[in-house]
Design goal:
six-stranded mixed sheet, about 35% helix, 7 helices, Rossmann fold, single chain, globular, alpha/beta
């Protein structure tokens, strides 16, 4: 019997003050700004007629707040998954991108070059380790909810990994796709094959940032 595909609706958290300032958050726990809360509410309204089997979120405040606003409106219980956290950016966390480039020029060049095995100084993650963490988590959700439709609240770096998994783009390749705050991103997985159905849909938003590096 043909199995139904599993569908993932993937959401980057709403805007924070640090997003607006181009300040690197990583795993620091920064809440939504008033703009981010408004975006989360607009997102919730846009999903009101959709049906989901389960909702999951990074446990960092900016993703969790976004998820709670939508899950409450949809009547869903939101389940935390720490493995959906943003990449740990080590010594860069708390700095703007410009500050990071000045204070840690060699490390910043390696970050910008997307060196996959470069572990960021200060207990930061390499791209390859980060990607492996994210994919283990998503694979476990796909196995648990085969044929279902899932709502997942997470971070820009996580969405970067998942887009590349669905398209075959390597981790090292420059980013040429958008990851706006609270954009709608739909991925379908069938018989182990990933495909993108919608990406970076911001039709429900007045405005949304994508301040992430390439």
């Amino acid at each position: 019997m043909h199995k139904l595909p599993t569908r993932l609706c993937l959401i980057r958290h709403g805007e924070t003050a640090w997003n607006a300032a181009r300040r690197i958050q990583g795993q620091l726990d920064i809440p939504l700004s008033s703009t981010g809360i408004a975006q989360a509410r607009a997102l919730a309204d846009s999903l009101a007629k959709r049906c989901f089997d389960a909702a999951y979120s990074s446990d960092l405040a900016r993703a969790w707040q976004t998820g709670e606003i939508a899950a409450q409106q949809l009547g869903l219980k939101l389940h935390p998954r720490p493995a959906l956290r943003e990449r740990h950016y080590g010594v860069f966390q708390g700095l703007t991108y410009d500050e990071a480039a000045v204070r840690h020029p060699a490390a910043y060049r390696r970050l910008s070059a997307r060196e996959t095995d470069f572990a960021l100084p200060g207990d930061g993650e390499s791209l390859s380790d980060f990607s492996a963490r994210v994919l283990r988590c998503i694979d476990s959700l796909l196995a648990e909810h085969a044929g279902g439709t899932l709502l997942v609240f997470t971070h820009g770096g996580v969405l970067d990994v998942l887009y590349r998994r669905a398209t075959g783009k390597t981790l090292a390749a420059p980013r040429d796709f958008d990851i706006p705050n609270t954009g709608l991103n739909w991925i379908e997985v069938e018989a182990g094959r990933w495909s993108i159905r919608t990406w970076a849909d911001r039709s429900h938003l007045a405005d949304a940032l994508d301040e992430l590096p390439g």
